[in-house]
Amino acid sequence: YHLSEDTLTRARKAVILQQLKQAEYDLQWIIYANPNHTDAHLLLGWLYQYIDVRKKTITFPEGEPDSEVYETLYARYFPYKYLEENIELYSQILQFVGPNHDNKKALSDIHLNMANNYFLLSNYPKAFTEYQEVEKLSKYILEKNRFENYRQKAIYYFNLARINVYNGKTRESIPYLKNALELYYKNEYFPLLARIGTKNIPELNNYLEDVKKKIALLNALLGLVQMDLERYREAITSFSTAVSMNGKSDYMNDISLYNSLAFCYQELGDYKKSEASLKLADKEYKRKKDKRKK
C-alpha cells in the first residue's frame, strides 16, 4: 500500500520489518514444536523470498536497490541472503514428510517454492528438476486447487516456459507461453476493453497499459522461440503483436523487435517487408537518440 501510494517513510519501513521479524520468530517456533508442519515451512519460505526479492527491487524515487536505501534497517532485522537458506528449509520438510506424503497439494507447493528459489538463484537445471516434480504431482490435484488465482497460474506458466528455454528445451516452452497469454487475454485484456469501451477512464487506461506490457513481453519471448525453431510465419505474428502492444510505452526495445521481424521476412524471401522492418528499426533508433539528447 505504502509503495503504491508513495507514502513509505523510514519509520514505516522499520515497523514493517519489525513485524516481519516477529512473524519469522513465530514461524520458527511452530517449526521447532512441529517439524512436520508444512504450512509453517511454506510461510517462512515465502517470507524469506519476499525479503530477498524486495532487497533487490529498485526504490522510487531514489533509483537504488531497497537494500541500499534501508541498509541499516536490513542490517538490524534481516542481514543475510535467504534464498539459499530456503533451499535448506524446503529440503528439511521434504525429508520429514517423505515423497509419499498424503497431502499432494502441500508436496507440490514445496517443490514449486523450491523451483522458484533455484530459479531466482539462476540454478536453472535444479529449478527444472523441481518444476518437473510439480508437473508430476499435478495429476493428483484438482486443477482449481493448484493455484490461488489466474495470476499465480500465469506466472507459473511463464517461469516454466523460461526454464525450458534455459535448459535447451525450446519447443516445450511454447504451450506454456500460449497458456500464460490466454490467461491474460481472458482475465484482463478483453474484460478491460469491454469496460473502457469508448470512455476515457484514466485508472482503467493505466491498468490496460500494464496488461499490454505483459502481453508484449510474452509475445516477444514466444516470437524468439518460434524464430529459433524456424517457424518464421508464426514468429512474425508474435513479434508484430509485441510491437502493437508495446505501443509508445518504451517498455520493450522496439528496435530489437523490428530487427527480428526483418530477419524472419528475409528467411521467408520477402525482402521488401524485411527492408521495411529495418527502416522502422532505424527510425526507432533515431527517435530514441533524439529523446536522449532532450
Show the helix and strand layout.
Elements: H1 2-5, H2 10-33, H3 38-56, E1 58-59, E2 64-65, H4 66-69, H5 71-77, H6 83-97, H7 104-120, H8 124-137, H9 143-146, H10 150-166, H11 170-196, H12 202-228, H13 232-246, H14 254-267, H15 271-293
Antiparallel strand pairs: 1-2
Helix pairs in contact: 2-3, 3-6, 3-7, 6-7, 7-8, 8-10, 10-11, 11-12, 12-13, 13-14, 14-15
How many individual β-strands? 2
Percent helix, as a range, is over 70%
List the total number of helices. Answer: 15
Biggest sheet strand order reads 1-2
- Poorly predicted spans: none
Indicate the radius of gyration in whole angstroms: 22 Å
Class from secondary-structure proportions: mainly alpha
Major sheet characteristics: 2 strands, antiparallel
* Spatial separation of the terminal alpha carbons: 34 Å
Shape: globular
Question: What percent of residues are in strands?
Answer: under 5%
Mean pLDDT over the residues: 90
Topology pattern, helix = H, strand = E = HHHEEHHHHHHHHHHHH
